[in-house]
Write a structure and sequence with these properties.
The complex is a heterodimer of chains A (about 260) and B (about 400).
Chain A (H helix, E strand, L loop, with lengths): L12 E7 L5 H14 L3 E5 L10 H12 L4 H11 L7 E4 L2 H7 L1 H11 L1 E5 L9 H9 L3 E6 L7 H6 L5 E4 L15 H9 L6 E4 L5 H10 L2 E4 L1 H10 L4 H13 L5
Helix pairs in contact in A: 1-3, 1-11, 2-10, 3-5, 4-5, 9-11, 10-11
Chain B lengths: L4 E2 L2 E5 L2 H17 L3 H14 L6 E3 L1 H7 L3 E6 L9 H14 L4 E6 L3 H13 L2 E7 H6 L1 H9 L3 E5 L6 H14 L4 E3 L10 H9 L1 H14 L5 E5 L4 H7 L9 E9 L10 H4 L1 E5 L1 E6 L24 H8 L3 E7 H15 L5 H17 L4 E6 L7 H7 L7
Parallel strand pairs in B: 4-14, 5-6, 5-8, 6-7, 9-10, 9-14, 10-13
Antiparallel strand pairs in B: 1-2, 2-12, 3-4, 11-12
The chains are: A alpha/beta (about 260), B alpha/beta (about 400).
């Protein structure tokens, strides 16, 4: 199976996010393959949730579209399973905790392994609450990705020391969404993290241009782009493949060292 | 784990960006709750500004008409701004000021918490912004104007179901955008630790006063304390002091909306299941895949798909009972209390009154029921008139 660290082997990683079921699950499967072809090093697949409190308007709207299209968790599992054998890069889920909790940690993580998911990002599961899920996830070889925010300073050592997969560094205050300017001193945070762990650090939230990709991938081990891709899918619906492909290729070219 | 837990419920399930603020808040709260200067100032505000202690009133007409248990009303409706919400808001806003924050943000359902927050902000000289579901801004238009009058900015929330839960979502999002100078004055005993504990502490004065007052009047403890439950702040405030008195029944009344056999209700304990949402592990109305359900109640304040974690624990440990009350029953009680006692209750509180009317008969003479009249009903008059088919403007 593809593992998270594969994405960071000898290169900076470009991580693409998209929402499962937007505009529908069959197209999502194609878009995941498109992102892979276009050069993404890892795919983050959003599971739609009724109340995405860490998301800005773009991803909120995508979540609502996916739900309106009838996307349910079991459908998302089937969709991912259907492309598993074609995937050469790791896939992780981005989901709020409740769908995982209600499905059952044991069942959920077992399912992840079965369908080729190797990690899970849960924005409302901070370090302090991870223990209940982490041991079960570990049993199934699923890594729980921890987030670090600009406000995490006092807890970086604790978080980094027990982090697995990669660290998702939130670029700036607020929810997901495109930003023209990010003022956080991210290189200082990356240095602080690196004192305590060797696992890769990827920066996300607000990144949408090749220039930003270049700048942030120079500081860290990778970048995550979500809202900008989701916005393209929102604009083009079922015909987003060319625009998405072109965008990801252009962004990928921006990576430091490429 | 195990921080702020009530049995398995509670916790801090919140984005990383807010964790530092929760630590800061917990530390400040633990410090100031024992700080004589803070406590003296807060008690002064509760007495001289909010009008505490609130009265415990014997509803003689109602009691005699039913011919059962004696009914007492804990008159939180007589507090400044017209509900129990002021207790918590004065506590949290004063705390925010002591913490050096210059701005508060708040969610609101019916508008009572938003009005209370705007009031406290005006008094204590802080900026205030309130997030309110668009649907609620329409059914509670007067409260929107009240908040603006008090100097607050009101943001209608258009995401999701445009009601209380979406207002909470949006206030949390705003807090992640701007946390350094801003305190989120959460309005109920919900959300991540330390809110359920802190809000309970600011509301427990209700039950403490009840104990002293009923002891003075009847020289005994009540047989039951009844309160409405959305998130559950007035209920926990009324219940908390009696939790270790096993002979005092604690009864929470949740919104059964158009009926439990429909999908239009907000009866969390009756119909919900365990989940994790809005920062807490608790009981929620949700589907088999953990999607939070749209809920309905005639009362904007009870129109919430979850319940505070301490209530979930009181329920799971069999210490408190939770019963469903429909829109129709609440409206009947709203009218009945108005006519019998000349007291117009908030439609939220009318849910507790409705159950009390049944309970008084069941329990019979010689028993004492105290119902927390959490708010006054002026805000609901126009909506109830419309519910009854009368077309009036506010």
């Amino acid at each position: 199976m593809n593992r998270i660290h594969d994405a960071f082997q000898n290169q900076k990683a470009f991580i693409a996010y998209l929402m499962a079921g937007d505009p529908n699950l069959a197209i999502s499967a194609e878009y995941i393959l498109t992102a892979q072809e276009a050069g993404a090093d890892m795919i983050e697949i959003g599971i739609p949730f009724s109340d995405p409190i860490a998301e800005g308007e773009v991803i909120q709207a995508a979540s609502a579209r996916a739900q309106a299209a009838g996307t349910r968790l079991d459908g998302v599992f089937e969709m991912v399973a259907s492309i598993k054998d074609q995937m050469r890069i790791p896939m992780v889920f981005m989901t709020y905790l409740n769908p995982v909790f209600v499905y059952g940690y044991e069942r959920f993580f077992a399912k992840c392994t079965e369908i080729g998911i190797c990690g899970v990002i849960i924005p409302d599961l901070p370090f302090e609450e991870q223990s209940e899920a982490k041991s079960i996830a570990a049993k199934h070889n699923i890594e729980i990705i921890t987030l670090v925010a600009p406000t995490s300073e006092k807890r970086i050592a604790t978080i980094a020391e027990s982090a697995e997969g990669f660290i998702y560094l939130v670029s700036s205050m607020g929810v997901t969404g495109v930003r023209s300017e990010i003022t956080t001193d991210l290189s200082a945070i990356v240095s602080a993290i690196k004192k305590h762990t060797n696992i890769p650090v990827a920066i996300g939230f607000g990144i949408s241009t090749p220039e930003q990709v270049g700048y942030y991938s120079a500081i860290a081990d990778g970048v995550i782009v979500g809202s900008a891709i989701v916005r393209i899918i929102g604009q083009h619906g079922e015909d987003a493949k060319p625009a998405m492909c072109e965008y990801i290729q252009r962004m990928k070219q921006g990576l430091a060292g490429v | 784990m195990n921080k702020g837990r009530f049995g398995e419920f509670g916790g801090q399930y919140i984005p990383e960006t807010l964790m530092d603020a929760l630590y800061e808040l917990e530390e400040a709260y633990n410090h100031y709750k024992d700080d004589p200067t803070f406590q003296t100032e807060l008690n002064g505000l509760l007495t001289d500004y909010a009008g505490r202690p609130s009265r415990l009133y014997y509803a003689k007409n109602l009691t005699e008409q039913i011919g059962g248990a004696k009914i007492y009303l804990k008159r939180e409706d007589l507090n400044h701004t017209g509900s129990h919400k002021i207790n918590n808001v004065l506590g949290q806003t004063l705390l925010a000021k002591y913490m050096g924050k210059t701005r508060i943000i708040a969610e609101t359902g019916a508008g009572q918490h938003g009005v209370a927050a705007a009031t406290a902000a005006a008094l204590l000289g802080l900026e205030c912004e309130v997030f309110m579901g668009k649907e609620d801004t329409e059914r509670q238009a007067l409260n929107v104007y009240r908040m603006r009058l008090l100097g607050a900015k009101v943001h209608p929330v258009t995401s999701g179901t445009m009601t209380l839960k979406d207002a909470v979502n949006e206030t949390m999002r705003e807090w992640t955008r701007r946390v350094s100078d801003t305190h989120y004055v959460l309005g109920s005993v919900m959300g991540p630790h330390p809110f359920p504990m802190m809000v309970r502490d600011f509301q427990k004065v209700i039950g403490e006063e009840i104990r002293v007052q009923i002891n003075r009047i009847e020289n005994c403890l009540p047989d039951a304390v009844v309160a409405c439950v959305g998130g559950g702040s007035n209920a926990i405030g009324a219940f908390y002091d009696f939790i270790s008195d096993d002979n005092v029944r604690l009864i929470g009344c949740e919104a059964a909306g158009k009926g439990l056999d429909t999908d239009q209700h907000a009866a969390t304990i009756t119909c919900g299941s365990i989940g994790v949402f809005h920062g807490m592990k608790s009981i929620f109305c949700q589907d088999e895949f953990g999607q939070i359900a749209p809920v309905h109640s005639i009362s904007a304040g009870l129109d919430y798909p979850g319940i505070g974690p301490e209530h979930a624990w009181l329920y799971q440990s069999d210490r408190a009972e939770y019963v469903p009350v429909t829109d129709d029953e609440a409206v009947d009680a709203f009218e009945h209390l108005s006519r019998m006692e000349g007291i117009i209750p908030a439609i939220e509180s009318a849910h507790a009154v409705a159950h009390t009317l049944k309970l008084a008969k069941e329990m019979g003479e010689g028993k004492i029921i105290i119902v927390c009249l959490s708010g006054r009903g002026d805000k609901d008059v126009a909506a109830i008139a419309r519910y009854k088919g009368e077309n009036i403007d506010e």
